[in-house]
Design a protein that fits this description.
Elements (H helix, E strand, L loop, with lengths): L1 H32 L3 H6 L11 H9 L2 H32 L5 H12 L3 H14 L6 H24 L4 H9 L4 H12 L1 H17 L2 H6 L8 H11 L4 H21 L1 H8 L7
Helix pairs in contact: 1-13, 3-13, 4-7, 4-10, 4-12, 5-7, 7-10, 10-14, 12-13
Length: 275
């Protein structure tokens, strides 16, 4: 019993330190956002004298964060919808259908997971420019879809591989076509995986800066994360205002983590087991 108790402490102490290291930056940012500029200059680490949301309101009203938020919501929703549609179809095909080159195509998708975006950034930019999709919402949606589709296909294939082949065969015996099996069997059974993968992809798209900065070149088309990054240079002498903008960008992500912790964990571990 003593050895078991010591083992728990050995695990609990590093995990507690890791949790503290994760929570402290958020608490510090919240505290700074509640300060006036004078309070921050006098002592940046002290607690705010008065709790006020003035900096958050100023960041929202004077910095265009409302427009940036709309851009982020539009692009994220469009990208996630397209990713779930294509990823679920491809996962169904790779896991339940038999066709020539299936294994090789799936290996190509896995190989795409290993290629960093920085490697293809230059040709990617040139191709988008040639088809006139730079600085457009459609261009960014397609960019996110291409970047995160291999990950989506991998997780959906892993999930659909757990569904017994007898279920699909029974549906075909009843007269369902390949598309009918996908619509009536695979989509309903795949709801847990679709929810998990959708949440993960939403977080990826929402938090992205590099791809959005590359595609969206005009200020009016910026996404929220790029807009908040620009605040650092625009308000370098007003750190509390910048902290307010950071909170605006972080709150949706924090809310998603709080409400969908189980689904996020299931999505991360979807491909770890089979059977």
């Amino acid at each position: 019993m003593r050895e078991r108790g010591i083992g728990r402490w050995i695990v609990a102490i590093p995990m507690a330190l890791l949790a503290l290291a994760t929570i402290y930056p958020m608490v510090f940012t919240l505290n700074v956002a509640m300060k006036s500029r004078r309070e921050y200059v006098l002592d940046r680490f002290s607690l705010a004298d008065h709790l006020t949301a003035a900096n958050i309101a100023d960041a929202w009203n004077s910095s265009g964060l409302g427009r940036y938020t709309f851009n982020s919501v539009l692009v994220t929703a469009g990208s996630v919808a397209l990713l779930l549609l294509l990823g679920s179809m491809a996962g169904y095909a790779f896991s339940q259908l038999t066709f020539r080159g299936r294994r090789w195509l799936f290996l190509v998708c896995l190989g795409a997971l290993m290629i960093p975006f920085q490697v293809i950034m230059v040709p990617f930019f040139r191709v988008l420019g040639q088809i006139h999709l730079l600085d457009t919402h459609v261009g960014l949606i397609l960019a996110y879809t291409g970047q995160f589709l291999p990950f989506t296909i991998f997780l959906m294939t892993s999930f659909y591989s757990r569904i017994p082949a007898e279920v699909v065969e029974a549906a075909r015996v009843d007269g369902s076509t390949t598309l009918g099996v996908y619509r009536r069997i695979m989509l309903p059974l795949g709801r847990p995986a679709l929810l998990s993968v959708g949440i993960l992809n939403a977080l990826f798209c929402w938090n992205d800066v590099l791809i959005s900065l590359l595609v969206m070149q005009s200020e009016q088309h910026r996404t929220l994360m790029v807009g908040v990054t620009a605040l650092r240079g625009q308000y370098s002498d007003n750190i509390p205002l910048f902290a307010g903008g950071v909170l605006v960008a972080a709150l949706p992500v924090i809310a998603i983590y709080l409400f969908f912790q189980r689904q996020i964990t299931d999505g991360v571990t979807a491909g770890s087991t089979k059977g």
